[in-house]
Design a protein that fits this description.
Elements: H1 2-28, H2 34-39, H3 45-55, H4 61-73, H5 87-122, H6 127-141, H7 144-161, H8 186-192, H9 196-233, H10 236-243, H11 248-259, H12 261-276, H13 280-285, H14 291-300, H15 304-332, H16 334-337
Length: 340
């Protein structure tokens, strides 16, 4: 197991280094001069040259890459061109909101996707099965930006015309509440401080963004659950359990679902990594102060250091979560760790 762990750590570091190099070189090809973004178009040639030298942009690209890699290894991802704040500091302040949103979306996906998949497997080739899988296909097919705007319009804008504040349109919590950051997860911090009203308000703000972002992983979890359950339900030990007179509920929960959990947990982990990588459209629609919205603003402002930092964070989170899932999978299945 130690050898398997070391090999995965080496692969993790190698992938992160490769992503850093590719991201840096790719951003070099994007049109736009960071010096012009920071100083404006009316800056003098002397000011532009001085800033270019200060930022190291007067050096060859390979020297810039070497300097960037050395700084990145120390956690220094540069400075934002817009507000001159450290990129790492900005990412650290915005990332908890993305974590909260991603966990909420995965909670929606698991709470609905797993039961839907079980129901579809229990009633395979029935009307219920067809309806469930059609709903899953619809969930994958609907564009996130369209679903988000429709939820805002139908569940926030329309009820407000009748004097009903059904769901908030934007933000993480109402302005009337002040929560001291502890974990930087608003719901958790409100509970830790004993402010249940604020926790419920933050949870209410999370509903629509989580539904919007959780639709695609919900559909994927439902399909994987159905597939895994169908494979397990054909096994001999399931027929033996039924022959012993066990109830269908016991057969499903204690025998079938437990043995179908490995692929389900794998897809949940991978989808969590994707969601933590940043939900740009969802965060922009709901004005959610996460890394996805930060990346959108950075792209709009041509803030290259911040764009690079967001890309590295997205990639690092996905690779790290993927590695953790890989290790958990190997712990559950010895054949993987020994390469059999």
């Amino acid at each position: 197991m130690l050898k398997f762990f070391v090999s995965r750590m080496v692969r993790l570091v190698s992938v992160l280094i490769a992503i850093t190099v590719v991201s840096f070189l790719f951003l070099k090809l994007i049109p736009g001069d960071p010096v012009t973004v920071r100083l404006g178009e009316h800056a003098s040639a002397q000011q532009a040259a001085a800033l270019r030298a200060a930022l190291g942009l007067d050096k060859p690209w390979y020297q810039q890459l070497r300097i960037y890699m050395l700084h990145a290894a120390r956690g220094d991802l540069g400075t934002s061109l817009v507000d001159q704040q450290p990129v790492a500091q900005k990412l650290a302040s915005y990332f908890p909101a993305t974590v909260e949103l991603a966990l909420g979306a995965m909670a929606v996906a698991v709470m609905f996707g797993v039961p839907f998949g079980i129901l579809a497997a229990m009633h395979a080739r029935s009307v219920l099965d067809a309806a469930t899988m059609s709903f899953a296909l619809l969930g994958v097919s609907i564009p996130v930006f369209w679903l988000g705007w429709m939820l805002v319009y139908l569940l926030s804008v329309v009820p407000s015309h009748f004097g009903i504040n059904l769901f908030p349109i934007s933000g993480r919590i109402s302005l009337m509440y002040t929560i001291r950051p502890i974990t930087h997860l608003v719901i958790v911090d409100a509970i830790l401080q004993g402010n249940l009203r604020a926790a419920l308000d933050a949870l209410w703000h999370l509903v629509l963004p989580a539904l919007t972002l959780g639709t695609i992983p919900l559909a994927i979890v439902a399909k994987i659950t159905r597939s895994g359950m169908l494979d397990v339900m054909r096994s001999d030990y399931i027929r033996t359990a039924r022959a012993k007179g066990l109830s269908e509920w016991t057969v499903i929960t204690h025998h079938a679902l437990r043995n179908a959990l490995v692929p389900i947990l794998t897809i949940i982990g991978l989808q969590t990594g994707l969601l933590l990588g940043g939900a740009v459209l969802t965060e922009h629609i709901f004005a959610w102060p996460g890394v996805g919205r930060l990346a959108f603003d950075a792209i709009s402002n041509r803030d290259l250091p911040l764009i690079n930092g967001c890309v590295l964070l997205f990639a690092a989170v996905f690779v790290i979560v993927n590695t953790v899932v890989d290790l958990l999978y190997a712990a559950a299945n010895p054949r993987i760790r020994y390469g059999t």
